[in-house]
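Re: folding output
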Amino acid sequence: MLFGNVQPGVLKMIMLKSCPFCNGKPKIMVREQKFLGQYENGKKDKLLGFYVRCNRCYARGGLYTLYTDNPNNELGIKHAVEKWNCRNYDQYLYYVNNQAVFNIGDNNE
């Protein structure tokens, strides 16, 4: 079951970066995950997946799953946004004359 995007009132203090591939506008998505096994502590909560998806190119950030019945769960939204907003370009870049160059392989050559 796809819940779609999160209610607007929950997003008051959340800033989403634009898509790193197409500069499109992202939105937070929630969907029910398939779950095989027993629920923790006898709870009947659903296993929901939170993620951010670009509306233009449909690129998707990392998935964060959580046992909850609430598709507006702040913890799930927070982790999905953190995964989307995380840009680790610096670990792949080095700078030559103040210009970024991608680091492919070892720099020992």
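--- second protein (sequence, then structure) ---
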Amino acid sequence: MSAAAVPLQQAKEKTIDTSPAKTSSEKDDFARWAPVLHLHCELTIDLPLERVKVRDLMRLASGSVLTTPWRLTRDVPLRINGTLVGWGEMEASGNRLAVRLTELA
């Protein structure tokens, strides 16, 4: 092993874990879920558009804007594979649309 490789190896061994310490219960939960953590799921954000009429849908074209009765500050439902799991607020993150989790169901 070269002398240059030793300091690099030592630096790797001194890496500090900055993640919050997990309690025994959290570790047990993680272990229990481990068999399914690699599975994909679908997280959807529901923005119900009530009182939409078929004629409104028939008039849709590129550039159409659908207005909703939802206020900007009103939480939207979050679903995983169709099951309600929480609520969140729509916001901007740079030039991307984002959802901030506000409450778990």
